[in-house]
Design brief:
This protein is an alpha+beta fold. It has helices spanning about 35-40, 70-75, and strands at about 10-15, 20-25, 55-60, 60, 80.
Length: about 90
């Protein structure tokens, strides 16, 4: 019996002062060290206004079977998720 490695996807949510919100997904195991540094140190350029060093937040999910994932989770702009998706859908609507 063999076991396959499960890829972990990290999602960062970025919010620019111009009110634009977007997400960047990456696999910490395969992404370049430069991009991982940029994602974790607020080094992104806003696609709407070209502002540099926009603040981002890494999504951290906690599984809660009693809280159903919904559009509020998909449209979230914070990095905290406490529903049954455990962060896998959090902010994905951007």
């Amino acid at each position: 019996m063999s076991s396959a490695a499960v890829a972990t996807i990290a999602r960062h949510i970025f919010k620019c002062p111009c009110k634009n919100v977007w997400t960047v997904e990456s696999n910490p195991q395969t992404v370049s060290a430069k991009l991982w540094y940029e994602l974790n140190n607020n080094r992104q350029v806003c696609p709407a206004c070209s502002r540099y060093m926009v603040r981002g937040t890494l999504v951290r999910g906690t599984f809660n079977a009693e809280k159903v994932c919904n559009a509020k989770c998909m449209g979230a702009t914070s990095g905290v998720c406490e529903c049954n998706c455990a962060g896998s859908n959090h902010g994905a609507g951007h």
